[in-house]
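Supplementary Text 2. Reproducibility record for the structural model of the 184-residue chain.

All settings were left at their defaults, and a single model was retained for analysis rather than an ensemble. We include the record here because the model underlies the residue-level annotations in Supplementary Table 4.
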Amino acid sequence: MRRWLTILIVALAFGAVSGIAAYHKVSAQERSAAARWREIAWPYPRDAWPAGRAFRCDAESCGGAVEVYVRPKIGFCNCDTGVADDDEVDRVADLDLISERFEPREPGRVVQLADLSGRARNYELRMSDGSTHSAIGIALSHRCDLLVAVAQGEGAGADLQRIIVAFLASDDMHHWMMASLGGH
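Retained model, structure tokens:
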């Protein structure tokens, strides 16, 4: 009986140590993912909407340099339909802040981020220096309010969308987005 008790205690101790190690590994990965983004100053002049938050991820961390700009547009969304179509994403996603010359690469897709739903669409931006960049515009609704995010980067559009959606889904960004929209 004593032998079985010893084996049980050792097994429980091993399980506890493994669980703690796994927790610390996941926490370190989450901190690492968050650390690769650094907040930068909002680079655009004031317009009808308040400045939002801007972030940069260096090429080493994101596979290409990426910048994302996020801001709320309170009272700007259709309360009944939310973000209904790609034309709305084209109109509201702030792509024109980066470049007036942008073209969609494909139809948009439905996006759900926590309490927010809307659409995301990939674009090609033609910059003033003649270069082209990939971009993604995201428009998300919550009640009658809108949250827009636009990102530009050096990578392919699908990779850029995956990176940006993961960033926006992070705990810190989710809390900020909901607070900026007056949510919980």
